[in-house]
Write a structure and sequence with these properties.
alpha+beta; OB fold (Dihydrolipoamide Acetyltransferase, E2P); eight-stranded mixed β-sheet
Amino acid sequence: MNGLLCKVVNRRTILSFCRSEGNFGILSLNTNEKYNERIVTSHKLDTRNQGAFIMHGNNKRQRNSFIDFYTPPPPPDVLSVKCGDLWQGYLGMYVRLRGRIVKARLGRFLEIRDSRGIAQLVADDDNPRMLRMFQSIPIDSYITVYGIVRSRLTPNKSIPTGYVELHVEDIRDVDYPMDENGSGPNQRRRLNTSAPAAPVSRTVTSIEFKKINGSKGLLDRLNNRLTTCGELRSIDVGKHVTLVGWIDRKKHGKFLHLRDGYGQTQIVIDNENPVIKQTVAAINADSFVLVKGHVVSRPSSNKNTAFETGDIEVLVEEFQMLDPELPYDGPILPQNQVQSETEPMDIANNTVETSQQQKSAPKTPKVNTFTNRTHTCGELGDKDIGKEVVLCGWLEFERMRKFFTLRDGYGCTQIMLPDDLGEKLRIETIPFESILQVKGTVMGRPPGMRNETMATGGIEVILSDLQILNKAKSKLPIEIREHNRAKEPLRLEYRYIDLRFSDMQKNLRTRSKVLMKMREYLINHAGFVEVETPTLFRRSPGGAQEFVVPSRKPGHFYSLVQSPQQLKQMLMVGAIDRYFQIARCYRDEATRPDRQPEFTQLDLELSFSDRDKIMELIEKVLVNCWPDFCGALNTPFPRLTYDQAMADYGTDKPDIRFAMKLIDITQAIELNPELKEGHKNFGSSAVLIKFPHSSLPNQLKENLNNIAKQYPKTKFVTSKIVPDVSQWIEGGLTRLVGQDVTKALSSELHLEDNDLLLFAYGDKEQSQLLMGRVRVAMRQSMEVRGIYTPDTSFSLCWVLDFPLLSEGEKEGTFESVHHPFTAPHPDDMHLLHAQKDLPKIRSLAYDLVLNGQEIGGGSIRIHDPNLQKLIIQDLLKLDITEFNHMLDALRSGCPPHGGIALGIDRLLAIMCNVESIRDVIAFPKGFDGKDHLSKAPMPITEAEKELYNIEIKVPEKVTEKVTETGNSSSKSAEITNTSLNESGTDLIPVFKDFLETRLRKY
């Protein structure tokens, strides 16, 4: 290797430019004087590069050599060093320093300090840009610099770093000092610091409130401070601060610990100042002091990692003991704006709703008027600190005999007992859920005790007086603990306790708000009239099973209305052209999670309208009442015809949030004529699951087979495309449907290896219904297995053009798909008058579907009495005399009209994301329509039977069995034949009664 000595950088490093076998490079001989070591480093250069680089022994810095090459060097490796650790071992290295500027000299020298010590920075004379930067950065700024470590020409032996200096090549992250108001030329703060963010709250805490002992002057001073003792960090070094607190500890005479409700800070006093020294000597544990000074870094040996402020201390410039009797005369800070009457608290959403966000009324009711409280337990916050308040609620929790939580329907608040009241009240002896009234002062919680998960987690109330309004019994049947909910039968039996849970409070308050906004829009914006219609009416043939109510007239009964249908149509005749009501309806049907024997619906009707206008009205009603926590609704809602919904989704209430639409494979299946034999209306639908999501767990397979058994006019097939498509065509499915069918399926569906094909064939309607349920079951299974994330969005759609009639149980009979008053589609009137192909006649009915559940249904009504008579008498074969009152009304001049009813319970259940509508009803019925709370239905007395002329006749196959439970009795019947519930399980009612009784007992 041929070498040429080029340059001596310093006494430790010798560089040579070398050439060996046609390759150019740099050789660096690095001598470490301290350890008497030699480190030789060579760096090979590509001959295509016209440049050379210096490589030092520690490989920490690369720079252009003295030879004038043109290609820039690669990015250097940077060594981060503390200011106080800079010594001769770093000579020639490229390092990074960060610290606070403490001194500037001659426009080209800066001294910066960090927790380890001081280092000198130099701007070279041949770098005018760096000289200007040195001269423009003020003292106390934090800077990050990069440069080369070199020896000082004149060493400073008084400091450890006095033999070296850093020749700066780059300055980054300049953080300028800020004044007390937080203003400064550069607002970039807290960069590259490991300290946690300081607390933003500076409100008076309970500890401070207790310490000031009622002093108004000290309270005002604390409320108007700019800095607390617990928020100072290393990034605040150089900042001038004013602190208020008490001396917690004296240390070596010169160092004191200043504490407030947010933490503590070490302060350093000047013992040579006689005024400060005399003041410090006079203070005691109860004294409040005011301290002004500058924040500085502590020496590394004096850092205290036990405290968040352990990296800094405050050099005291002014020290003053505060007189608690004197009023505060300093600057007043703008306080948090108190919540205005026009910016109400949205209890259902637990958010503050501004007037711009409100969609309806500009004011909210004042929930504390006409009561003995000043605030609810869910509304207190930092804005209320210092206020005297009165709260009423339930004792929820107690701890340490010093704190307890008071809860009402709006939230909960922590109450703190002063030491003098703790022993007197003995809060631990008061049973949970007792009703209390407390008086006290609102204070901020100390930083470590703030609970961000609570709306009132930033404050607590210092108790001054407590009154027990009603002491609860020591052991309740239900504990109000969110993590340990009772089973539903017990919840329904003690519903008055269950309603105290936060989710029930939210659900019922959301319900109230939604109904209010529905009313507000319909009355104030759309001019509707709310009319109450009778609950006691006459039976309506052709609808759901009704509850009968005996009258004193022998043999005569009322019926509870299953809907106000006939009554609201007669309102249209009476010129109440825009009617609505929140109606209670009753149907004697089996109870399900989405059904109750009594339920609520938004019922409306309007004259001189059509289908499109009514649907537009409902969309506006829903947009107006839709809760903010459910997100925004997009209108108009998608529209599907009944035939389209059945073909694509296999149901008239489709969940359109996910695809996986049904595929019509009728033509492919019909290639085998044997498969369609015996079916008058043949059809086949399929669901295709693409690989790799095509697994079919055994439990899912069993569930699908159970679903298929409920559709006896169909055949259900599952087939996985294995091992490949060609072999699948020749495989087992061919023996079932034929090779022509499998080839057609492969071609039409573009099947691939490992796909999963599920299909049904037979009766067209049953095949669609079966595959619609299979579609939903497959999606739910994939969500459970984590293949898909459950979709919690809200998707509404309209389903139109329902059939007017459906075939009845007896051959040749028909039933109304909706009700007998639904108008037929005008395009199908020729079929109606000819009475041909009656199942093909469409109606002007429309359903509203939300996430696969029907939440509303309506139609344009028949206003022609002759057409109404034709449908009731000739097509439905109903007794026309049952409808004489309706026909007379139509003959009296009835305008064209239509309407709709929205199921409030089902709508709210979906909004609140609960499984059952029972969770959005205050007092719902349980299984089989039973009221677990009152034990209804109950037997009546002999006197009542005689009054209403009722004679109870027990069927021969039913024997009554009376069971006693405490002071109440319940009857159950042993029935020989079983009934099938919605899950397909045979249950004997007497067994259900026995099971529920046992659950209540335990």
